[in-house]
Amino acid sequence: MYAVFLLLIQFCSLPVWAQVDPQKQLEAYRNRALQEKLFLHIDRTFYVAGELMWFKINYVDGSFHKPLSLSKVTYLEVLDKENRPVLQTKVAMADGAGDGSLFIPTTLASGNYLVRAYTNWMKNFSPDYFFEKTVTIVNTFRKLELPPLKDSLATDIQFFPEGGNLVRKLTSTVAFKTVGSRGKGVDVRGAVVDQTNDTVVRFKPLKFGMGRFEFTPAEGRQYRAVLTDANGKTITRPFPAIQEQGYTMQLAESSNGQLRITVNSNTNAATVYLLAHTRLAAIQADQQSFRDNTASFVIDKKTLGEGISHLTVFDASRKPVCERLYFKRPERRLAIDAKLTSGVLSTREKAVVDLTAQDETGKAALADLSVAVYRLDSLQPAESGDIQTYLLLTSDLRGAVESPEYYFSASGPEVAEATDNLMLTQGWRRFRWETVQQPNQPQEEYLPEVNGHFIRGKIVHSGTGMPGRGISSYLSVPGKHILLYGSRSDSEGRIHFETKDFYGPKDLVGQINPKDSIFRMELQNPFFERFSSPRPPVFDFLPALKDPLLNRSISMQAQNAYYRGNLSRYQPPKVDSIPFYGIANEKYMLDDFTRFPVMEEIFREYVPGVMARKRRDGYMISVLDVPHKLFFDSSPMVLLDGVPIFSMDRVMEIDPRKVQKLEVMTRRYIVGPLVFDGLISFTTYKGDLAGYRPDAKALLADYEGLQVPRDFYVPRYDTPQKSGSRLPDLRNLLHWVPSVKLNAQGKAQLEFYTSDEDGTYRFVINGITADGRAGGKQGSFEVTKVIK
């Protein structure tokens, strides 16, 4: 007994970190909760209603940024300022990429809109993880209704103590960010004053409205911030709360490539723990003891991953108490180059562009590129950011980042300080430590769509609305291409149907077995109904832009008037035309046989795999179980153009003269969790049910499947006749290619023709390699008017 007591004492005396290891908790969380990232390359950011928006989606894992092939569907939405979706689509994904287009209808109001994209798996996490980008749409068929402009000093300032805390008598670095009404950083002067109006410290921004200052909260003092704009107008803002006891952290970067993290505390703590990780991949874990209320950690920058790393401080009980971010500029990169083979181009002339891609060592890179070429005017702002800045920077920060390319391309001490100010003011992580350290992890509600789109729904009691448990449900798509999906409701009444090759608009028929007629089926909205906090900036339109807008509108109308057919060409996706049940055991084209007027005679005369018998309570239909050479005891699943018919009497009422094909599965068949004793499928000549009406309680719905890809129209002026055509070519977007595959030498070539519009044109390229190197390239060229 005494020995057991000694062992218990020794176990209890072990340091807490040996029992609770944040590093192992983080690794377990990363393995369980895969982080996905999406990047959208949109052809432009300014549109007039009536134009097409083209996009390319890159899909990578959130830690190493390598292309993923897990989720096969991306959801894309265009939201207005009230978070109302005005455009929605579902895009098929393959090999880490997808692409498509959206027609901007003339019913939209002018304004700034938010384009966002996400997968089904990403719905399990905050919508802050979704890709978001602001675009401007102007409807030239409506009068502009501009909101009244707010006072230019509608300035928001926020203060961010390094590590997250201000503690009495402990010195901290305090970062700040000032943002104007347009969402951009503003240059204001400020001061921190105490309750006696004594100035404690003065501050001003360094770059993009961000800056920092040192601050030590004194005993018994209260503080506020006073701001003054360029016009001398003054406003007052509150200052962060001050803790009486707690922890602070400060990071200092040395010239020998090391980071020193200093932790101070006035809690009389004995030890403190530091965990460094880059996008959930743990880099370093260390524990230090306090000496004179101070503990220090050293990290070699070479051990950190590229992009943003998190440095989290835990107390002795492994509770996170401080955290800050550090940004490491990337050394691995994708260098893209684009060169015109000719100098200045003329209108309606062929342009040839040589594309090359290399890694940081100069070695050819096998990259997948997307390319947009459009005319620059005063409406279209310069593109800000690319796939590299998104993956390594903005996707891991909360809110919008102004001019993200600055932190990658500029150099000098000011850039390093501005970058660190950004880390301090927009620090954020794609998880919560409370979730990571939770002992019983919750089950994710949304599964990744690894084979195709999930159609989700619910079975509820028609009278009470309570969930129906364990009820079989069926979802079918009427037509000649037979599609049927089955599901059984769980304890919450939830059902889901995993579709495949589900493209374009469809008519859906949802049913449950009539024996469960007290229940009904409801389909759920496949798009996420939670939103991030950032909204598009206030829409404003300068009168000086009236003429460029008119030209853009004329261009759009000319394209739609003269080239409508070319703009509406689609690429039918390659789908399996075989019915969901595969190759039937028996197949009959009824035109090859004697046409009998009733269905019973057809079964009796030349369908040996089916037996129909009339009983006192109605017809009984059985299918032969060929492997066991016996007829099944239960009725089979009977389909008419893919729609289940549960009443065998109604099956016998089908007019055989309207049926083109009859197929029979003479064995037990499984659809999802449902098992059928054989299957009989009737296909009508037109695939339109031939007048048959499903049960009155069936759910009939119009449903939009995956987007059918649209062809990008590129006119060719390769003959004198075409070049001399009198049809106007006022294209603003000269070329769009969602996927350019480079050869083994890292090269490719693009060809397109200029339009009738002269001026300056810009090309924007984004690309990524299989090993996660990402990069972008922008450039411009001139097109001159041909004088005839």
UniProtKB/TrEMBL annotation:
Keywords: Signal. Residues 1-18 form the signal peptide. The lineage of its organism: Bacteria, Pseudomonadati, Bacteroidota, Cytophagia, Cytophagales. It comes from the Bacteria. It comes from Larkinella terrae. This is Macroglobulin domain-containing protein.
